[in-house]
Amino acid sequence: MFDFELLKESKKTEARLTKITTSHGSIETPIFMPVGTQATVKAMSSRELKEINSQIILANTYHLYLRPGDELIKKAGGLHDFMSWDLPILTDSGGFQVFSLSDMREIKEEGVYFRSHLDGSKHFISPEKSMQIQKNLGSDIVMAFDECPPYPAEKSYVEKSLNRTLRWAERSKKEMENSEQALFGIIQGGVYPELRKKSVKEMTKLNFPGYSIGGVSVGEPKEEIYKILDYTTPIMPKDKPRYLMGVGTPEDLLEGVYYGIDMFDCVMPTRIARHGQVFTAEGRLTVRNATYAEDFNPLDPDCDCYVCQNYSRAYIRHLIKRNEILGVRLTSYHNLYFMLKFSEKIRKAIKEDSFLDFREEFYQKYKLK
Amino acid sequence: MFDFELLKESKKTEARLTKITTSHGSIETPIFMPVGTQATVKAMSSRELKEINSQIILANTYHLYLRPGDELIKKAGGLHDFMSWDLPILTDSGGFQVFSLSDMREIKEEGVYFRSHLDGSKHFISPEKSMQIQKNLGSDIVMAFDECPPYPAEKSYVEKSLNRTLRWAERSKKEMENSEQALFGIIQGGVYPELRKKSVKEMTKLNFPGYSIGGVSVGEPKEEIYKILDYTTPIMPKDKPRYLMGVGTPEDLLEGVYYGIDMFDCVMPTRIARHGQVFTAEGRLTVRNATYAEDFNPLDPDCDCYVCQNYSRAYIRHLIKRNEILGVRLTSYHNLYFMLKFSEKIRKAIKEDSFLDFREEFYQKYKLK
């Protein structure tokens, strides 16, 4: 099952409050989705993810197809059972990862031939194959198989690729007929306004239950993403969820929401955590640095998470310097908590018609990198 | 504060049930103590340690002295505050680690000169210094500074070393005068019965609140340890706790308890966990092996821990093969739970006068490696 409710629209911005219902429960948006690439959100257990109020997590089709294999996950009863997560799961189509392999893949009309980044073995993923994998995974929200052009890319190439993505979306839809899983179409078009417009126009004709904005976070400057949103989201259907793929710093969330995005995902919070860097209300802090060797304050004095209530910067720095697993566990937990709490604050601000004030207060305190 | 109660003695063996009280709470023995070498039990959070009923944990003086430094830990309010653990902590004296450095250290009557295994820097630890470090750490139970001879070692060397350990025990005691921390004397003597006897006789004259058996788990066959216990524990004071240092497989616990040991510690449960190996009621299982790729059973079908209630062998194998932190978290959690639950079962068996039956049943099911 899949249901979408538009609960509230902001008056001065495109920001909106929505509720998405799947067979594994409901999601309130705007929401940040932690990424569990290999059927695990790095360093986190499923009950910790629930404790920090993760409403939905993401998993990667490409990685799970290669290892441990989608057939194995199907035997386990699907991804929910396999990883012990009973709330919603969204899977990508594998397209983004396959296209990132650059010289190890060949794109044809029928699909993409590529070699595994793990062992060089040969593989083929088509729109149909991507849907079959995602069916085996049993995620609640699945993505159509798209081509994600690099940045920068010639307009003519982006247009050709966009047209193929449309044909692939139709094939994805056909393969997903009669499925309980909700298939999202992906808007492409690079940094070209008329191509994004064309993509929205043609993709929405297929009447998907939701739409993603793809082809971002591929190396372009942040301003380009915001520009794309500025001319793309207003023409997207209001009565469908909007998901900005692979984007999700705190400032990205604020800007995305401002332009009307509902869903975000990014590996960044757990990736920087592994390098000893954490979010605070004042900006990012590299707790690994010698400055914090004798700092007995919590990571973020404004934070009420389990980590900030129990551990100090000095202790976490010690753990990270000594390569102790608990160090990365604590920074990962805190960073994801920060993002989910931040999503919650954004929802509250929209509810109370104070989103613009909230955004301004954030920038006054949070030092951008 | 420190208090010891002998609650029950087994009739047919030396096994006993005791209660040790420290200023951070009470411990029921026989007990396995998880090892938190660098102020963290590897891969575990403090609340997980509580959840699996860890009554007391161990930390290493040598490692903490080097990094992050005992002075820093003192500033943090001691080890309990630093690592967010409010139950009892036992620290070793640093002796074992220093003597393991072999060619990087020189033993003199005043103490040991050595080079750090981390950066080669020069250091000196004496009995007084070891006590000062342990005071800074603020552990509840501290160990006297001893010399731990290697195995094999000539009797004449072991005797010389034993005498030095006695002189160092006196100096340790003097340095710890007026401390709230409970100082344990360490019984040495290698594999020589009369030296062990001499050590017990002389060490108990110093009237420590507890005694450890050291100089084991240094490369000798298991049978040697059990022989040592057979002739050593019966002559140790009944009204003091007995701690067998660095020993702690399931079978070691059973045999140690049989011979009258109360406390055990070992890095083994977390170390094998990092290599994808776990305890089950039937013996050790290497979940990393291909055999378990599609095995959707829990690690140990007889186990009621969080891991076994929620995750399968196939999933944990996948995580470990992919070097995902959660994999090691789950195997570590399960192995420590196994050891603590096993300690609890041993206590119950002693209470119910069925320890010998319990021991026999264990060996019938558990395949030794």
TrEMBL record, chains A, B:
Cofactor dependence: Zn(2+)
Domain tRNA-guanine(15) transglycosylase-like: 14-367
A single Gene Ontology CC term: cytosol
Residues binding substrate: D92, S93, G94, G95, F96, D146, Q188, G215
Top EC class, one word: transferase
Region: RNA binding, residue numbers: 246-252, 270-274
InterPro entries: ArchSynthase1/Queuine_TRR, TGT, TGT-like_sf, tRNA_ribo_trans-like
Reaction catalysis annotation: 7-aminomethyl-7-carbaguanine + guanosine(34) in tRNA = 7-aminomethyl-7-carbaguanosine(34) in tRNA + guanine
Assigned EC number: 2.4.2.29
Keywords attached to this entry: Glycosyltransferase, Metal-binding, Queuosine biosynthesis, Transferase, tRNA processing, Zinc
Coiled-coil residues: none
An example molecular function term from Gene Ontology annotations: tRNA-guanosine(34) queuine transglycosylase activity
Described purpose of this protein according to its UniProt entry: Catalyzes the base-exchange of a guanine (G) residue with the queuine precursor 7-aminomethyl-7-deazaguanine (PreQ1) at position 34 (anticodon wobble position) in tRNAs with GU(N) anticodons (tRNA-Asp, -Asn, -His and -Tyr). Catalysis occurs through a double-displacement mechanism. The nucleophile active site attacks the C1' of nucleotide 34 to detach the guanine base from the RNA, forming a covalent enzyme-RNA intermediate. The proton acceptor active site deprotonates the incoming PreQ1, allowing a nucleophilic attack on the C1' of the ribose to form the product.
Subunit comment: Homodimer. Within each dimer, one monomer is responsible for RNA recognition and catalysis, while the other monomer binds to the replacement base PreQ1.
Family matches, as HAMAP family: Q_tRNA_Tgt
Entry's family note: Belongs to the queuine tRNA-ribosyltransferase family.
The name this protein goes by in its record: Queuine tRNA-ribosyltransferase
Species in which this protein is naturally found: Halanaerobium hydrogeniformans (Halanaerobium sp. (strain sapolanicus))
